[in-house]
Amino acid sequence: GHGIVGAQIGTGAGLAFAEKYKGTENVCLTFFGDGAARQGILHETFNLAMLWKLPVVFICENNHYAMGTSVERTSNVTDIYKLADAYEMPGDAVDGMSAEAVHEAVSRAVKRAREGGGPTLLEIKTYRYKGHSISDPQKYRTKEEVEEYRMKDPIEMVLKTILENKFATQEEIDAINKRVEDSVNESVKFAEESPWPDESEVLKDVYVDQNYPFIVD
What we know:
- 40% of the residues lie in helices and 13% in strands.
- It is α/β, with parallel strands linked by helices.
- Helix 1 (7-22) runs parallel beside helix 2 (40-51).
């Protein structure tokens, strides 16, 4: 994400340009939501990314609502992946509730970029169960709609596949969950018990080079 809606789209292409300039095989994945897909910077970036065949994969996480505004109320083109057509960029819609489908689509796009084929736009059709923030009353959707998507929860689907194929036992999965929970709790405890940083550190790590002439101690 980014403090300015959609700004990471251009930043992602910029990082990809740097990698191409340096001659590396690195590929940049830049993530944005369906709301950010309506920003003008998307079109400017898509144009240059295709022109320069940048190694970048644009991943739009379409969870149907930009804050409380549905996709249908923000654009005449509700299939976001079709925005790539204007720039002759490969674009595809992916079932975001399927971990396997997402993995396969992203792998193909990364391979294409790494081989010099340029960018790809992937629209990951997914869903968010909770509100945009704690102050979101969620009056723009029904509880039935949320429950319908919960039935297709990708984490639950992956766990089901793991158990059905005997990749792991329920006991092993429970042990992993316990390790993760313990790690999170330890991190929270560390953060809450740590002292506040000294005021002298407020500008630390803001710049790569700490000796810029315009920085005055």
